[in-house]
């Protein structure tokens, strides 16, 4: 085989819900290698569906930690078999599904620091975990622990101001509290608790990696302003928790050099640096190269907004995390459950199942839809908590139906006005340099993106985000190598492929939507009060 040219690179890992993925990115920021191990397909013995086990109660959702360990063994062996030159790896970083937690058994650190390069990780780490099935982000079994935590710190809004979110069942502090309450013996035999991100970093480090500020913001435990654990939150969840978590670190930190295990077994250079791993969403923000004032809109099954914020306004909706690439700033995440499934339903009902007819309806109706407004929530919406379809005429009279074309525009304008209103409630403001980055299935429909540009008054770009968490992690590894030079992340990634401009605001759009947004906000409150019933 022809000698492969030497190609210095950084690796970006993603320990996601369904698979472990890796990309190799060279100094020109080109992705030249990618691989993955799919849990359901490649690790059948664990019996997961979508990478998880949903328990009989329908609320508890876990994943086997040894499945994650073995997936790393397999993917590294696949890379080795493909002839990947590990000696060229300058640094690596990674991401993990947020909120999940890993429980290292007392004594595990000795095993982790003295791994034999002759054996796979799984064989050596078999007995290193006090909890075999780790709670993950899909779990919703900790409602009681959420109420206890909010009560301990003065309520939901107080917790949100402190940690960036009100209590959420999937957030790690509440999961730890449940384990302490229901399995105190396992908790007492736990010397370290990692997030999925810091657990993965620990494997490469050969010692316990600290939690980074950004993924740590998804625990209901970290004070997001001071970037220290909240003693009130720790105390409300479990005893002696701080010693099990260790001190959190900035997300751009080099947490150490790669373990000798990987040097001897795979040929990594001993000076290969490990940059703190973070959550998948913060890593995606890095991969999409969001900058201050930008907003990323993922138009998928549910719609997700990533915001870059300088001064957050924590609220009872959405999540504020410490920013993964600028320690002085923040990011926000907003989830809208009625995303593409709602768009597909209206397409089927009002455009005979045709996206082309759907687009024609948007083209044939004007901005503002002659004052007609709609709320379309066939499943209980997260942001805000409303269910049902509610349509209003220009005179704010509720009606039971719209003509088909009006219905289609009311759906799309309503979805995007909701996004703008709730993003602004978290402190987001459109800036002159704002770019909207659209991803996900609906981002292939230019007419939908035109409405997005008009409602926000900002240009819309599309970007390939297939591997955004991995690529963002590789970018963060390069950024970690520049530690101490104060080089901003944007400078490090300036060679990366640019997003493609798809839509710019129609002239006059801001005047139309400025008025409509105010009506939308007012009507949303009216619907909320109707569906929530009168305040107690
Ligand atoms: O719970 C979430 C964010 O808060 C999910 O996006 C997980 O990070 C997916 F892994």
From TrEMBL:
Residues 131-287 form the Carbohydrate kinase FGGY N-terminal domain. GO terms for cellular component: cytosol. Gene3D superfamilies: 3.30.420.40. GO terms for biological process: D-xylose metabolic process; xylulose metabolic process. Residues 296-479 form the Carbohydrate kinase FGGY C-terminal domain. CDD domains: ASKHA_NBD_FGGY_SpXK-like (cd07776). GO terms for molecular function: ATP binding; D-xylulokinase activity. Keywords: ATP-binding, Carbohydrate metabolism, Kinase, Nucleotide-binding, Transferase, Xylose metabolism. Its EC number is 2.7.1.17. It catalyses: D-xylulose + ATP = D-xylulose 5-phosphate + ADP + H(+). Monomer. PANTHER family: SUGAR KINASE, XYLULOSE KINASE. Phosphorylates D-xylulose to produce D-xylulose 5-phosphate, a molecule that may play an important role in the regulation of glucose metabolism and lipogenesis. Belongs to the FGGY kinase family. This is Xylulose kinase.
